[in-house]
Amino acid sequence: MMDRYTAGAFILVALAIVAVVDGRNDFIKLPSEARGGATEGNGGADDDSVGTKWAVLLAGSSGYWNYRHQADVCHAYQILKKGGLKDENIIVFMYDDIANNEENPRPGVIINSPHGEDVYKGVPKDYVGNEVTAHNFFAVLLGNKTALTGGSGKVVDSGPDDRIFIYYTDHGGPGVLGMPTSPYIYADDLIDVLKKKHASGTYKSLVFYLEACEAGSIFEGLLPEGLNIYATTASNAEESSWGTYCPGEYPSPPPEYETCLGDLYSVAWMEDCDVHNLRTETLRQQYQLVKERTANENGYYGSHVMQYGDLKLSVENLFMYVGTNPANDNYTFLDANSLRPSSKAVNQRDADLVHFWDKFRKAPEGSARKIEAQKQLTEAMAHRTHIDNSIKMVGKLLFGFEKGPRVLKAVQPAGQPLVNDWNCLKSLVRTFETHCGSLSQYGMKHMRSIANICNAGMKIEQMAEASAQACTSFPSYSWSSLHRGFSA
Ligand SMILES: *[C@@H]1O[C@H](CO)[C@@H](O)[C@H](O)[C@H]1NC(C)=O
Ligand SMILES: *[C@@H]1O[C@H](CO)[C@@H](O)[C@H](O)[C@H]1NC(C)=O
């Protein structure tokens, strides 16, 4: 039985899904890029005969509806492994609740594209379950074994000639990256860790690939030049990033999969790495290719891939960071510059609804599974409505009916960080969540609003009063902070 609200929600979701289904299927061959081609891509001069390659891979989510993030990380591991990195130098963070999830149609197997092979096999389980924390991530980057809580004990024990590759994929929000176990990663803490790592003199250069919504906000105005760090992000500071290979799209996952298999930016860089001799492809060439594929011709979906930090590092070959698969030795970037079609995509923040909807749609009429899927969808929708309305109301209570929405939506000028006082942001997030429940992966989008409340000079007491007024009852469903803990 569906009440009218639920039926309305289903129709909205269905419309949103239909709206992104219409696809192309051919590979697009890009003309080779003559510009820069002559000077870039010769691996000879700057090889890695000294120094070790290190990698840290992190999937920041849990739950079957977030299948794609762990699939991305497993795929990245396979690239590094085939590229010649050693397991002792690859550190993997993933919740590890996908391969053997009861929803997984192929037990023990994870795929990252519709016809992809198993990417789960052999992936080291360094930090799993509740060990996937911001605290352990920072300890690993800093090479500080004594700071670890649980896990394999592997850390980036690097020296001054070494190169480090970091890849993170998950939900995010302005200034924040999700983690399966709270609290989240805040941009200022991450940047501090990178500065400390640099100050310790334990790397030559570092490349950071980051997939998350509003990923640009992690580095914008925050990552200085001179740390020998080159970062690219799936999205700019103000937009969503996108899941791909989702049910109902083209190309879609095999029919038994009711979840997205990958993320648009992530599969763009990885599918490029899969087929090329990475001694002949530079970071910059990959950035441009990935930017084009992820932008999707600036259509309805897609995002702006950005680069930050020491852009001069981008003339280096990918090989210096991720190695290269000897089987691709004859496939240079310029000879085989193939760009997959802009695949259809689903907003990161709607991918959970796609999963619940697809599960609902396929479950037999009257089955327990159908009822469960309906409950999941209804709760997810109720949570969204509750969080959206609460934040709006807090804004109106603090700044007035007219001015409230404007203050919350304001965007800092380009090159400025999201918030002036990060401690204010963290304490106001906690204050809000104390009264209104967890923001959760969807609610992270409101970090900008809370940052703006800080930028306007509001204090904890004012936030507490407004939140208490806006949220008269505390939600008890599964998205509540009763179950999820606090984000800050
Ligand atoms: C490592 O972490 C421990 C515990 O957090 C801390 O006391 C120590 O100062 C850290 N060591 C370094 C070298 O940063
Ligand atoms: C690359 O081409 C050369 C010359 O044709 C051939 O000998 C070699 O086996 C090829 N390598 C790979 C990995 O296919």
From TrEMBL:
- Domain Legumain prodomain per the UniProt entry, residue ranges: 375-471
- Per the UniProt entry, the signal peptide is 1-23
What are this entry's molecular-function GO terms? Answer: cysteine-type endopeptidase activity
Instruction: Give the active-site positions.
Output: H171, C213
- Top-level lineage group: Eukaryota
- GO biological processes: proteolysis
Keywords assigned: Disulfide bond, Glycoprotein, Hydrolase, Protease, Signal, Thiol protease
The family assignment reads: Belongs to the peptidase C13 family.
Designated name of the protein: Legumain prodomain domain-containing protein
Please give the organism: Penstemon smallii
Q: What is the lineage of its organism?
A: Eukaryota, Viridiplantae, Streptophyta, Embryophyta, Tracheophyta
